[in-house]
Amino acid sequence: MRKRTKARECALQMLYQADMTDSPIDDVIKKYWQNKTRTPDVVSFANEIVKGTYEHLEEIDKIISDYSEHWKISEMPVIDRNIIRFAIYEIIYMEDIPPAATIDEAVDLANRFSTPSSGKFVNGILDKVMLINSKKDSDH
Hints:
single chain; 140 residues; mainly alpha; N-utilizing Substance Protein B Homolog, Chain A; 7 helices
């Protein structure tokens, strides 16, 4: 498994844990890595995603609410919600990562860890975010 793929999987697990327990994100990160052996690249990238997502969580959740027709964010499956959150963070704030790569990985995670329809749901929201974000970039 590629390093960034593994890091995204780790980030999803941490975001899921934080969402389910309402624990402070720094505590979740520290506890998550306690008994795991990972390369520094995986740890660094996963932590960057998790901390960045939480730093911009209010804005990210507003974006999700704006683009998820007929779904309240609180009613989404927890895994889907957190995949979408970190993918939006990557699309908007991590300009060195192609948005299409982020979306492909997010859809793959949704297909592997969530419901049969999750990949399609995640893809639909993230495609809208990518289109709006690329339009904003071209307007500047």
